[in-house]
Amino acid sequence: MGKCAGLLASVTAVAGVAVVCGCAVCEKTVRPGTVPADPLVFTGDVREGALIAAPEGDEQTFECWFMALGAGQGDKPYDRIVQTPDWYLHTIASADEVSSLTFGYTGADGKVQGFGNLGAVEGIYFGKWQHIAVTYASEGFRVYLNGAQISGGQALARALPMSLKGGLACLGNSSFGAPRAFKGKIAGARFLGRALSAAEVTACATINPDGKPLDVPPSTAATQADRIPVVDISDDAPRQVVVAEGAKDRYEGHPTTLLADDGRTLFCVWTTGHGGPCGQMARSDDGGLTWTRLDATLPEVYGRTHRNCPVLQKMKGPDGKTRYFVYSAKAKEGRGLGILMSEDLGKTWREMPFQAHLSAGMPPTGFMALKDGSCALFGQVFKSSAKAKDRPSDDQAVWMSVSKDGGIIWGEPRIVAEADKRNLCEPCCLRSPDGSSLVLIMRENRHRGRSMMCFSRDEGQTWTTPADTPWALTGDRHEGVLLPDGRYVIAFRDRAIGSDTYGQFMAWVGTWDDIVNVRPGQCRIHLLRHHGLGNVFPGADCDTGYPGVELLKDGTLVCTTYTRHFADDRQSSVALTRFKIEEIDSLYKKLK
Which terminus of the chain has a smaller tally of CB atoms within 10 A, N or C? Predict the structure, then answer.
């Protein structure tokens, strides 16, 4: 970002509205605090844009109404609502919908801090007026959609500028860089030299430019009733152990863990690179305090042909034998499931036959031992093979497959969870404390609303229609355990819209009744701090949170993930934190 480049210096008539095209001097410039009488109309042409003056200083508010009518032209699908010399706000467009918002600013260090996938339960709708507001004050930026905060606090408080420079801002396109044209209407655009309160923003987002009430689904940003205390142990170094340290040129990612029946021995597998090759394994004989690498004990073919987020599971077969398994994507053979198996409690491993009938672009993350002695795997599959490019709009469904021989042979998968315009993936299966019911908690990969869940009371034969989880359980790649007192600890990457810890490695503490009745729960735990780097990849804001969660025999919880653990140029490390629930309860009481 920088000064207005004056890309165009002419005035273009668009739908009868004079729109100024990127020039540095223009009599149509809207002054702070004023509202255009008529909506500005943009056709999505990169030659269009309008200017508006933004105030400098320690506080600022921008607000407007906008109506998206399609995807505009530009070098990337980020249609610009507004860009100031200090920050920007785009819609994220696609051919058939505008899915979300992206926001960024230039920090005090001169680097652009980017925050993508901000939005509401059904995203940004075509053909509907929606209200957006951005405020800046001492606590940082806050972004509001339709009167509800969708990001702010810690999530938008990295390397904040001391104050804003102000100057000419661009509406509907960018004169500060590559053209990214908006297609639709913008009305009521104005800047103020102070930060509006949340209540003031809500009051602004009531009557749209057509004189009608706001007509979009309510935001899934946190309401007061949704919010629960956050117990923060993320900076408590004595609890933490680094299993595999990243380096400037090495990324350690996507771990899962397995707890042996002795309640103390742990195994961990992960990849190098984001979704990269497998080949890494470590064992801890002391509950995660120290680790020994086991890479050399694994078959050579594992590191050569298996990749992407390996998953550890253990199963007991009808012969009474416990076997350990590693599931991964068998890259050389397509999108099927690759399997390693150990029949001697992890001492030696061998590759099992490739399971081509089980979709494993992302290996199956859910597992459950069923009452009849069989076991179930839960994975994900694209609804349309023509749209299998792992984009948020390429919707997925969750499948279930059953093995009757302890994981050697798996039956044909069947779809057990799908929803219209929902991208359901990375299922986690948990059993109710009384043993009668199962729940699938699923990542919703459009990230416009909450995570989703469905239930079964007949050991997976039938499932309820997927519905939203509690706000505080919204995240990616859930993994959890049931505590002896009947509560659950479920870890995940935080994706709750409006969360102050958005993109961090979190855990939720609550009961089965909280889940079933969509109640907030007791508290959330900030487990490990992720020092994300905005949109810089690898290591972006949300590039953390694929967890292992284990409850040791002595009551210690071990939560493992990959995270940009160090605030320097080292890439992701595999790290863990250890705690007991009594410690969390004690800290929780101090917050109340």
Answer: C
Residue 287 lies in a domain: no
| Angstrom distance (rounded) from CA 503 to CA 495 | 6
């032209």: which residue's tokens?
73
CA angle 16, 17, 22 (to 5 degrees): 135
In a domain, 332, yes or no: no
Residue 221 near residue 497, CB atoms below 8 Å: yes
* pLDDT tens figures, 59-69: 999 999 999 88
Report the CATH number at residue 42.
Answer: 2.60.120.200
Pairing of strands 523-528, 230-232: parallel
- Asked if 183 and 133 touch (Cβ cutoff 8 Å), the reply is no
Task: Give the integer Cα–Cα distance in Å for 503 and 548.
Answer: 17
The whole-number pLDDT of residue 390 equals 60
HSE, CB side, 13 Å, CA atoms: give it for residue 8: 19
Mean pLDDT, the chain, whole residue set: 86
Q: d(Cα 365, Cα 495) in Å, to the nearest integer? A: 18
Q: What is the pLDDT of residues 534-576, one digit of tens each?
A: 666 777 788 999 999 999 999 999 999 999 999 999 999 999 9
Instruction: For 536-549, give one letter per residue: b (16+ CB within 10 A) or e.
Output: eeebbbbbbbbbbb
571 domain-assigned: no
pLDDT by residue (tens digit) across 93-138?
665 565 678 888 888 888 887 777 665 545 678 888 999 999 999 8
Structure tokens at 585: 């309860």
Residue 25, φ and ψ in degrees, nearest 5: -125, 125
**What are the residues facing 11 on neighbouring strands?**
20
User: What does pTM read for this prediction?
Assistant: 0.83
Q: How many domains does the chain have?
A: 1
Lowest mean pLDDT among 72-76, 151-155, 324-328, 490-494: 151-155
Look at residue 2 and tell me whether its pLDDT is greater than 70: no
Alpha helices in 121-254 (DSSP H): 198-204
303 located within any domain:
no
Domain that holds residue 170: 11-204
CA dihedral (438, 444, 445, 448) in degrees, to 10, reads -170
Strand 112-118: give its sheet, edge to edge: 50-54, 167-171, 78-83, 87-93, 98-106, 112-118
The angle formed by the CA atoms of residues 331, 333 and 338, to the nearest 5 degrees, is: 65
| Distances, alpha carbon 39 to alpha carbons 18, 93, 171, 176, 202, in Å | 10, 21, 12, 23, 21
